């Protein structure tokens, strides 16, 4: 069950916090821009606009850019000129040449106010154009252009101040060569063309510059609370007034110190400090509005920083910091702590890097947004232990840069007990009830606002089905149980059954979801393996064992954990047989499944083999070696691989034979035959005349087959050759005469050469 805690706290504070995000995108200078969408401002480099001073831009409530202007033209969010958005009647060198206000009557329409510049002798006065964002598929179009409001000359100062009712707005300008402020009220009924006139302060006239009207240059700004107004008169001084944002009237003129070129003005977020820039003096001033009397406030002015180029416009950002335009710079300066006095305000000239874009002396002339109180709330779910608990903070109002921090009340979790962001999660260290606190703060707040509530983390069931893998013998069931559980617990097995136990009869994965009364579920699982009896054999039922040899009996490959018990009680995986008998083994698998096998072993005698005694003799004729009488089915293998029952030895050497009986039993014997140095005779004459006497070339005392013979005639031509002589050469086909022979024994290497006479 989901439990949601929603708490909303409104912050009561003197700080003015700007809730909307319509000022999130600033476009200015030479194609420069800044985005305040994240925690840190970053450069925007897609602007199509190049302007010296006049600029304004506006975004929707989510912070998405809508359009921007230099008071002459207006560009849509795609950085293309808006339809009918040219020649709006302003001037790009007017200090505050443009201001944008959302229509109180139609949130899709915006008023774009513009004023003329000194370069055009301020002739254009105050004009407005109406932009309808429903046009051009949401890109907007100017539907009413350059409507004249004040036909007389007004200075380059133009600002918008929220009415005290939080809905309407005051459009303020200052008449040229006059001390009159003109305040036009914009309501749901449109713009009131008759202004509220306040004749107070100095007369804005004269000044240097190319047109001798430079005192029309400079900024006019209201404090965040809307109760103060300040102006900068370029060749004059800064001026401070009280402003009644209910009536639109100014009063209580306080002239401030002049620092050579009075240009930009801006109030600190808490309204206690006023900042001004000394244009080509490249410096930044601060006035302490809490110094006391008007004279003390005027005397409090001090320089708190120096800019890298001309010090131009000042503009309060959505993050509570004040940004400073620096002429021809790739950086916008920043006052990081504008509520602090003196150098503690921490001005940095390298505030925001504009990339390859360049700042001029103007910044977007954004209106001061109505004060909206900061609100905070969060939701959370009741969760089960071990599950990350999600939290979701909702922050309303404020400046849109609020920082949310959390304390989950779970000190045991260590550094994980705290978090930042709007949607953290936390895994609690134990079941129980915890007090969770959300703290929200923004720049300038004295203390954060906090929201606290309790979160319950429910325990989860403990489930144990036993070992993760359970083996049982075939035909034996296993009963799985989730263990003892409290009242109100429910069970759901893998097949949908809901009993507290489950009987498994086949192999498979089994699980149960156990849910306690708090709705927390734990799953337990186990794998059941039904094991068949072992499959084993010791070989043929009758096996023969040769005398003097051994036979190794094995039950075959068995699963891990199998045990063995042989007929003699031994427990090895194999058994070595040496005598006749009956042998058996019982194999038992881990679950207790058993099987038995046996075999009969019969011992048989080895073959009797005797090649005779070693001997030395003349090998004029081969020596026939025999293995003796052997039973049918025996096989033979001599030393040279031959397989006959006998072997003829023609030369000296070691002769051996293996005899294998029909039962596979093997015996071996060998005999050494040594050739004696016997007398021999090689004839030197033969008479092949067919009288049967001395007919052929006969080797006497030598085994002719062991010799190769080559015969040559008297001219050296070969007439006969054989590798194994047979005492048969008779010079057949050749004439009588002397022949030369060469005899060679390939085994012994012996060589004889000589001649023989053939006479018929």
Short description:
With 760 residues, this protein is mainly beta. It has 6 domains: 20-353, Methylamine Dehydrogenase, Chain H (7 Propeller), CATH 2.130.10; 375-458, Immunoglobulins (Immunoglobulin-like), CATH 2.60.40; 469-531; 542-598, no CATH class; 615-675; 685-758, Immunoglobulin-like (Sandwich). It has 1 helix and 59 strands.
Molecular structure report:
This is Gliding motility-associated C-terminal domain-containing protein. InterPro entries: Ig-like_fold, PKD/Chitinase_dom, PKD_dom, PKD_dom_sf. With about 750 residues, the chain is mostly beta strands. It folds into six domains: about 20-355, Methylamine Dehydrogenase, Chain H, CATH 2.130.10; about 375-460, Sandwich (Immunoglobulin-like); about 470-530; about 540-600, no CATH class; about 615-675; about 685-760, Sandwich (Immunoglobulin-like). Helix content is about 0%, strand content about 45%. It has one helix and 59 strands. Strands 12, 13, 14, 15 and 16 form a five-stranded antiparallel beta sheet that branches. It has a five-stranded mixed beta sheet with strand order 30-36-35-32-33, with no helix packed on it. The longest helix has 6 residues, at about 295-300. The chain starts with 8 loop residues before the first strand and ends with a strand. The model is unreliable at about 1-20 (pLDDT under 50).
